[in-house]
Specification:
The complex is a heterodimer of chains A (349) and B (822). Chain A has eleven helices and nine strands. Chain A has helices at residues 2-22, 26-37, 42-48, 58-85, 110-124, 138-141, 181-189, 231-246, 299-304, 321-329, 342-345; strands spanning 128-129, 135-137, 174-176, 195-204, 216-226, 252-257, 262-271, 288-297, 313-320. In chain A, the strands form two sheets. A seven-stranded mixed sheet of chain A has the order 1-4-5-9-8-7-6, sandwiched between helices. The N and C termini of chain A lie far apart (85 Å). Chain B has six domains: 2-33 and 174-198, no CATH class; 42-163, OB fold (Dihydrolipoamide Acetyltransferase, E2P) (Beta Barrel), CATH 2.40.50.140; 219-409, 3-Layer(bba) Sandwich (Phenylalanyl-tRNA Synthetase, Chain B, domain 3); 419-488, 2-Layer Sandwich (Phenylalanyl-tRNA Synthetase, Chain B, domain 1); 505-711, Bira Bifunctional Protein, Domain 2 (BirA Bifunctional Protein, domain 2, 2-Layer Sandwich), CATH 3.30.930.10; 730-820, 2-Layer Sandwich (Alpha-Beta Plaits), CATH 3.30.70. Chain B has a seven-stranded mixed sheet with strand order 27-30-31-35-34-33-32. The chains are: A alpha+beta (349), B alpha+beta (822). Chains A and B meet through helix 5, strand 1, strand 2, strand 4 and strand 5 of A and helix 2, helix 7, helix 10, helix 12 and helix 13 of B.
Chain lengths: 349, 822
């Protein structure tokens, strides 16, 4: 008798384990659990038969039944936890294609971005940054820079002179700076050599504007002055900076060019990044793009800075930021930089 | 400057097999930028000589004819043509299908295709000269005159370009790169440079020996400072009625000048060949001799272009014994230059000083081929080349010509200079030592004489490089280096000594400020011009006090230079408001004042006050003033923390002209205890309704901040402080209370914090929200504040927390009349 009951309990154990394991939802599990060990469940039914057993046999069967109840109950609990953690927190129709919420971000002007890229590149080479006033005098805009007294740039057709301060000469004649180069003399006059510095800023020319010409534009000059600095080292300086800004190995070439404040002067070209040098519309099919003038500071400029030209030399470059940015992004109208038009500026985040 | 390669080859024997692209590259690298090269014959592709065999009427049109035309290769084609000068047996130009022509000489180029004209099939087109770009060489008067090539040795089918000798390459040289090399003006100058670059022979100009001992003309130079040489040649037996030979016409036409008559063409030819301008006077009109003198005050002269100029002693003129006959080096007078019936001329080959000449040209608004060349400075030796060439070309154009007078007044011969260069210096500067013999050879090729003794290289530049271009050792280095080839210098490593790290707080502050505003505050950086339109100045200022002006402004209403960034930012805001409902922009730039002139760098100059400012503009159609103001205020408040500068605070002492009457604050450079007006470094305010209206911004709230960047004091390093994390829990406790409208947050905060004599359980008080609206009585507002309550010593019970909060509520109701919202 007792053996038959044991047999039934053993079968219930097996069936119970299997049906708990196969319950696939918590409500199914609840029903399974009730049918096994609930008040009207299978175990209860089996235990009803315990009355027919001999009293001495009852404790053993009782303890087996108890252990079975605990066992199934624990299994059901484990299964319940597993079922609760399984599956998604949301219904399966959750729409993953809804766009993200954009961070509410502004941006630096694309010219400023380029400027800071160059600042970082030059600072990594140990250059200081220098800024000076935008209104300067003829003395610093022209005289110190070896511009002949009759140079056309000194006339009002080219330079914005300041009314009421435009009749004198030299230090008394004021203008919106037509280039940055004058700043180099200011820097050198107030510091001791050797020098390594950059001086970015905006300059102004009295011009008729169109897609390629602006009255206000941005330049970035770098100057190094030392006792030894052959012009062939200038190429290394230029290339290191361009490599860093464009993130690739940029071919650089120097060819003859003339500017009053350098001797010898160079036009510095970079290999066209659009076509890789094979020739395209951007580089006018020559594979090179004129990117900056440069050269060794003219002895007169060094002298104006209080240096002995026999002792010092150096290398200078003037990078047209507008042009560089136009190349970087394929911008086709230089006037956009001063448009303050957010439809344009917000593209450069 | 346009150059004909064919013409250049008259003067230099270029290396065999030299490609045009190579020549362009070498000139660009070592001398001047060549911007392009055009194969001239490309313009005449598929345009050939045709011989009209037979002309028959067109069945459907009176003015058209059908020309049976031999176009070579045994092909006779029928071509419909409306030419008025058609003749059978005539040689003409036929544009075959595939050629490009300009219909009736107007509009863009059109490709020729087989077409039916009024029902008759026509093969290509018989051309007028204007239709294939040759009007200047084959001019005609009557419309629909077709090109007559009967005078040319040509067979049907020959390419037009070959028949006319137009198989040439035209080089375009960037004029800017010629600025300091006046010796390169003209075909001969470039030929001379090419002979140096390629080390190939320069060919001589045609020889011409002047008859000896001719007098017959006198030249006086009154002002040798402005005219260092004047060569006058009297030539008889010429005629203005004659056209120059086709070769001369064709050459000057190729490089951009129009043939006029033989006399004018030859003077132009000489200028284009050797770069020396010349001028021809009708000798019959020249009374007495030639004098080069200053103009009289108010002296008048009618120029060749019909313009009458009133002169002053600053102007140099050529005069005969009566009056001025030409503005020296710029333009001749209309009365005495070449006239239709001129048969005898005085040819002027002169050298004028560039600076005065340019001033005269500019004063009278005259820029001519001659003045452009003189302005660059021309060496006086060049007159000899011009003389020889002019005489020999005149002789070939006018076989009967006769030189009856010649006078060479050369008061100021060119001074040749010597430059000593140290070879050791040269090697150091180039980063490379070249052989002495190589250096000598380079210089010799360029026409320099040089000799080396010891370390010294003594150089004397040739006459054509003695106009100021070569004057110091650095110039000699450039010559040597470019002949060696810049590409042949290996890059030299840069060496430097390290002394200290770069520490530039002011630069960091400026960048930090920009990055803070852009990246943390969601503002877009913009740049605007330094000049300001009057209408935006009016929106911001009551007058123009303290502003500088440009003497030649970009536009009449943009005379003033900004003393504030705001006007242009308002213009920018107004423009953007057309596309956007809400945005925030700022600019960090300099502003300028007509005051406080000082000499910051050099006592020789006085500069006006110039300061960097940062101005921000927040615009919103939807956000109310209060919300937008809080955003702008938060942006300003965050500067000290995020940009790491000394603290700022808000005071109210001086309302900006453009600010709203109520919503405005000044920004003080002193944190905490704010002082008076002298500490004000900026403002934060709602744009007044009047300013917004004048700036054209409607239906939007505009909040502006404006700060003097140079008054921000960068911290030497970060000043963040560490506070130990609380040991016992702290709770947030929100209180909403009603207050009367006049009650300000500042007093709510201070009442909530209490007097704080002992350590208080209320650790902090913060503003959460302000609310007006339904359920809130008129004249009241609901303020929600958040307390943080906690203790250093233990975990507080809920009774203790409630008691601390109750004390705050009590203070708020007692001191400020606050009522708990129910």
């Amino acid at each position: 008798m007792s053996a038959a009951l044991k047999e039934k309990l053993a079968r219930l154990r097996e069936e119970g384990e299997a049906s708990i394991a196969s319950a696939s939802t918590t409500s199914e599990l609840y029903n399974v659990k009730a049918s096994l060990i609930g008040r009207k469940g299978a175990l209860t039914n089996i235990l009803k038969e315990i009355q027919s057993l001999d009293v001495s046999e009852r404790p053993e069967i009782g303890s087996i039944a108890n252990e079975l109840k605990n066992h199934l109950s624990r299994l059901a609990e484990e299964r319940d936890e597993a079922l609760q953690l399984a599956g998604s927190a949301v219904p399966p129709d959750f729409d993953l294609t809804v766009p993200g919420i954009a961070p509410d971000g502004g941006a630096l002007h694309p010219i400023t971005q380029m400027r800071y890229d160059l600042d970082d590149a030059f600072r990594s080479l140990g250059f200081e940054i220098f800024q000076e006033n935008e209104i300067t005098s003829e003395l610093y805009a022209f005289d110190n820079l070896n511009f002949p007294p009759d140079h056309p740039a000194r006339e009002s057709m080219d330079t914005y002179w300041i009314a009421g301060h435009d009749s004198g000469r030299g230090g008394d004649r004021l203008c919106l700076r037509p280039h940055l180069t004058g700043a180099s003399v200011r820097y050198m006059r107030t510091r001791k050599p050797p020098y390594r510095f950059v001086y970015p800023g905006r300059v102004y020319r009295n011009e008729t504007t169109d897609a390629r010409h602006e009255r206000a534009f941005f330049q970035y000059e770098a100057l190094t002055v030392d006792r030894e600095f052959p012009f062939s080292a200038g190429k290394v300086m230029v290339k290191s900076v361009l490599d860093r800004v464009f993130g690739s190995d940029v071919p650089v070439r120097m060819r003859v060019g003339f500017f009053p404040f350098v001797e010898p002067g160079f036009e510095i070209d970079m290999g066209c990044l659009v076509c890789g040098g094979s020739g395209c519309g951007v580089c006018k099919h020559v594979g090179w793009i004129e990117i900056m003038p440069g050269g060794t500071p003219h002895p007169n400029v060094l002298a104006a800075s209080g240096l002995d030209p026999a002792e010092f030399t150096g290398f200078y470059v003037n990078i047209g930021l507008d042009r560089l940015v136009m190349m970087r992004y394929g911008v086709d109208d230089v006037r956009l930089f001063h448009s303050a038009d957010l439809r344009f500026l917000s593209q450069f985040k | 400057m346009k150059l004909s390669l064919d013409w250049i080859k008259d003067y230099v024997r270029l290396p065999d097999g030299l490609e045009v692209s190579r020549l362009m590259y070498d000139l660009t690298m070592s001398t001047v930028e060549v911007e392009g090269a055009e194969n001239l014959s490309d313009r005449f592709k598929n345009i050939v000589v045709g011989v009209i065999e037979e002309i028959v009427p067109h069945p459907n049109a009176d003015k058209l004819r059908i020309c049976r035309t031999d176009i070579g290769g045994g092909e006779i084609k029928e071509i419909v043509c409306g030419g008025v000068n058609l003749n059978s047996g005539m040689k003409t130009a036929v544009a075959k299908p595939g050629a490009f022509v300009r219909w009736h000489g107007e509009g863009g180029l059109v490709e020729i295709k087989n077409a039916k004209l009024r029902g008759v099939e026509s093969y290509g087109m018989i051309c007028a000269s204007s239709e294939i770009g040759l009007f200047d060489l084959f001019p005609f008067k009557e419309e629909a005159t077709i090109m007559d090539l009967s005078g040319f040795d040509a067979r049907p089918g020959d390419d037009i370009a070959a028949v006319l000798g137009l198989e040439d390459v035209l080089l375009e040289i960037d004029n800017k790169s010629l600025t300091n090399r006046p010796d390169l003006w003209g075909h001969y100058g470039i030929a001379r440079e090419l002979s140096a670059l390629y080390d190939v022979p320069l060919l001589e100009l045609p020889e011409f020996s002047l008859p000896s001992g001719v007098g017959g003309i006198k030249v006086v130079i009154d002002d040798p400072g402005r005219c260092s040489r004047y060569l006058g040649v009297k030539i008889d037996g010429v005629s203005a009625a004659k056209m120059s030979s086709f070769v001369i016409q064709s050459r000057i036409w190729r490089v951009g000048m129009r043939p006029i008559n033989a006399l004018v063409d030859v003077t132009n030819y000489v200028m284009l060949a050797v770069g020396q301008p010349t001028h021809a006077f009708d000798s019959g009109n020249i009374e007495g001799g030639i004098t080069v003198r200053k103009a009289g005050d108010g002296e008048r002269l009618i120029l060749l272009n019909g313009k009458e100029v009133s002169l002053s002693p600053d102007d140099l003129v050529i005069a005969d014994d009566r009056e001025a006959v030409a503005l020296a080096g710029i333009m001749g007078g209309v009365k005495d230059s070449i006239l239709d019936d001129t048969t005898s001329i005085i040819l002027e080959i002169a050298n004028f000083e560039p600076i005065g000449l340019r001033k005269t040209a500019q004063k009278h608004d005259l820029r001519t081929e001659a003045s452009v060349r003189y302005e660059k400075g021309i060496d006086p030796q060049r007159a000899d080349q011009a003389l020889k060439l002019a005489c020999s070309v005149f002789a070939s154009e006018f076989p009967d010509m006769n030189i009856s007078g010649c006078y060479d007044n050369y008061p100021r011969p060119l001074e040749r200079i010597q430059i000593d260069v140290s070879l050791e210096w040269l090697a150091r500067r180039m980063g490379k030592r070249l052989d002495d013999s190589e250096i000598n050879r380079f210089l010799d090729r360029l026409g320099f004489s040089s000799e080396i003794s010891g370390d010294t290289l003594r150089v004397s530049p040739p006459s054509w490089r003695s106009t100021g271009d070569i004057s110091i050792p650095d110039d000699i280095m450039e010559e040597v280096a470019r002949l060696h080839g810049y590409e042949n210098f290996e890059p030299t490593r840069i060496t430097a000594t390290f002394e200290r790290s770069i520490n530039q707080r002011d630069m960091d502050t400026e960048r930090g400020l920009r990055e803070y505003l852009s990246y943390r505050c969601g503002m877009q950086e913009v740049f605007t011009y330094p000049w300001v339109r009057d209408e935006y100045l009016d929106a911001v200022f009551s007058d123009r006090e303290g502003m500088l002006e440009i003497s030649t402004p970009p536009a009449p209403d943009e005379r003033f230079i900004r003393s504030s960034l705001l006007p242009n930012l308002l213009e920018a805001a107004s423009g953007n408001a057309r596309h956007l409902d809400g945005f925030a922009i700022y600019e960090l730039s300099q502003v300028f004042f007509d005051r406080n002139f000082s000499a910051p760098y050099d006592e020789r100059e006085l500069l006006p006050e110039q300061r960097r400012r940062v101005t921000g503009v927040f615009v919103s159609k939807d956000a109310g003033v209060a919300g937008l103001f809080r955003r702008a205020k938060g942006t300003v408040e965050g500067i000290q923390r995020y940009v790491h500068v000394e603290p700022l605070s808000f005071i109210q002492t001086n309302r900006p002209h453009w600010a709203d009457e109520t919503v405005w604050l000044n920004i003080s450079s002193l944190g905490g205890e704010s002082l008076g007006e002298e500490t004000v470094i900026g403002s934060l305010a709602l744009l007044s309704k009047r300013s917004a209206m004048l700036a054209g911004i409607r239906q939007s709230a505009v909040i502006v901040f404006d700060i003097d960047v140079e008054s921000l004091v960068p911290l030497r390093s970060r000043t963040n402080r560490y506070t130990r994390l609380p040991e016992y829990p702290q709770v947030e406790y929100d209180i909403s209370m009603l207050f009367g409208e006049p009650v300000k947050w500042e007093s709510v905060e201070s009442a909530a914090l209490g007097r704080r004599v002992a350590p208080d359980l209320v650790r902090s008080v913060s503003f959460i929200d302000e609310y007006r609206g339904r359920q809130i009585p008129d004249g009241k507002k609901s303020i929600t504040l958040r307390l943080v309550i906690g203790s250093d010593k233990k975990t507080l019970t809920s009774d203790e927390i409630e008691a601390a909060a109750a004390a705050v509520k009590k203070r708020l109701s007692k001191q400020l009349g606050g009522e708990i919202r129910t």
